[in-house]
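okkk here we go again. third time trying to get the S-adenosylmethionine bound version out, last two times i messed up the smiles copy paste (missing a bracket lol). double checked this time i swear
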Amino acid sequence: MAVAPLTFSKTSAPRSTASRWIRPARSGIHGRGVYARVEIPDGTRIIEYTGERITKAEAQRREAQRLERQRRGQDASVYIFVLNRRYDLDGRQRNNVARLINHSCTPNCRAETVRGRIWIVARRDIPAGAELTFDYGFTLKEGRLHPCRCGAKRCAGYIVNAAQRWRLRRRRKAVR
Ligand SMILES: C[S@@+](CC[C@H](N)C(=O)[O-])C[C@H]1O[C@@H](n2cnc3c(N)ncnc32)[C@H](O)[C@@H]1O
Ligand SMILES: [Zn+2]
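finally!!
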């Protein structure tokens, strides 16, 4: 399929939650994911992660509801993003396409918070057709509830932030 050339610059992604760089589709990692429609240069601001700004207390309440859904075997995807020390962002609404981006232990994107807005930015050149991923940044404690299926050679087995992943790898080696 021929794709129209992109006309906006690397740093001027549109304000809307749609982005011409990407398209959603079924993912081999989990459910639906987001894929590059064209080659995306390193450093590109691809899309904004938008949502409802909520307090930490409200985020805890929603997380408890999510765990209850998980316990009942219903859909229990995590869409709440840490915004700052006081607030989180619940990105569950359908027009937030960025909510479909999966986690990987070798991600090709990163999440950047700039003046209260969260952007998904390419951390290397991403070829057309590749699935976009970023590090969800879960702590060891949070990650234990989330087995990782990113398929990376050095996958840590659980969705845990890069700085703590070595602990999981060390444990896996020890039990081998
Ligand atoms: C923000 S959603 C990502 C979009 C999701 N694939 C969907 O279809 O809605 C986050 C959820 O996706 C799943 N997920 C994301 N990355 C994953 C991974 N590497 N391994 C396993 N599940 C993953 C987890 O269930 C997580 O709670
Ligand atoms: Zn992984």
